[in-house]
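Q: Protein BatD, please. Structure only.
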Amino acid sequence: MGTNAQVLVKASIDRDKILVGDSIVLTLDVRAPLGEDLSWFNLDTLPHFEFLDKGKIDTVEGVDGKKWVQQLVITSYDSGYWQIPILSMKVGGKTYYSDSLGVQVTYANADLSADYKDIKEIEDVPNTDTNYIPWIIGAVTLVAIVILVLLLYRKKKAIPVAVPVAVKLTPFEEAMQALEALRQKDLPHKGAIKEYYTGLNDILRVFVQRKLNIASREKTNEELIIALKKQRMHEEYFQALSDALRMADFVKFARYEPGIADNEKNFTIIETAIKTLNNIA
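A: Structure for Protein BatD:
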């Protein structure tokens, strides 16, 4: 730029329309003459947006001036059309401004009333575990008789009776029982919205970890969405599940309070997702 070089301040985004919870890359680009004092943008908050990552400020010097570039990853949990406001910074004691940038933030629509597509219906499997009950009762009775005989005739210490090990539930059975238990608690009507969505989230995470061997408890919801995208879910149901997980984040981190219909809808989405993943895994 040299001594006659101008100061250029520019802000840009990689896209201007996203779904709620999606990320945007905001790039700040400043060019000024060499030797000028610079005071960077104040990036504490952006109305309707949250910072996911603030990249470092990269600088490049040339014979005609100096260039500063910073990339910030932001997201929004509020649906609507929002403006990234004008940002100000100083070069050589003079204030310069970036342009404001508009972003449309929307929810994705999903028709949950449609039939399953390309997925087999759930088949009932006969439960054969109860066939062993008579044998267990007989074994316990025999042990009891032996202990009684030893106590009466030999005056010896009773032989401890081994406790049968409980049958472990399958991931699907465990998830269905947990969902029914959560429904019975009726948390939304008690005002415990955060506990309700945390419960839905945890039930799905435990199922995914046990059924799909995905370390879901160590992932954020956005990371979990990326991992589940590799499964053979129908796009419509995958998008609905993504929205439900993002809604759980809104409730936990943005103190969002969904309506009664949304609570029932997201319960159904999680339940449907577990059934779908159980069939295709």
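A: Brief note, in case it's useful. The mean pLDDT is 85.
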